[in-house]
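Dear colleagues,

As part of the handover before I leave the project, I'm documenting each prediction I ran so the next person doesn't have to rerun anything. This entry is a single chain, and its sequence is reproduced below.
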Amino acid sequence: MIQPSTFAFLRKLAKNNTREWFHLNRESYDKARQNMFDLAAKLAVSINRFDERLGYPDPRKCLFRIARDTRFSKDKSPYKTNFGLILNAAGSVHSPFSCYYVHIEPGNCQVSAGVYAAEPETVKTLREAIDGNFEEFEGILSRKDFKRRVGGLVRDENALKRVPAGFDKESPAAEYLKLKHFYVHAPVSDAETMSPDFVKKAAALFKIMHPLNLFFDRAIEKRFLRDQAALRESFNV
């Protein structure tokens, strides 16, 4: 569960987003960060009950840095005002595979799964998988529990207006082929995250999302195996 003190820290940070304030409140940050590490460890145990591929990643490697990269942003605020926790088999926030993600931000908490901000080659791979296996893909999204608790893939402002080159414009998967990010999410209230059974509730949502992750990872794994085979062949020539 998320401690009230973690939310209190994030609220204060949002009002005092400066390096000076942050360093003066480092102890509160360390306490909030440890809360996220503890959550990651508990979630890993629960997720392994239905997805043993996850294993038990180091919680310290599952938490996104709170420092913002301001080099190319007009907003020069030095810190994020949320915590992002990512769990995947690679045990890294930079894995190309699908993940389970928890977003903790006052008034905007959520759990999600899928593939976000992938490299162009992975985006192409996922589009090909959806287009070539649309009946299976649609079947995952059409499950009653999935539709009721999760909904569908998130369509954000990054989505293309037209079907990308190389794909049939009349494909039944056309709207999904326009996506650049392939993920689903379910909002949770601040109160829910602070309840003793939050890990159980989050894991239940992740279990519903799990088939989607399997679908995406199967496609990505096939591409990696294909690339490795091509590389080995090139060395044998």
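Residues 198-236 form the longest helix (39 residues). The chain has a mean pLDDT of 93.

All the best with the project,
I.
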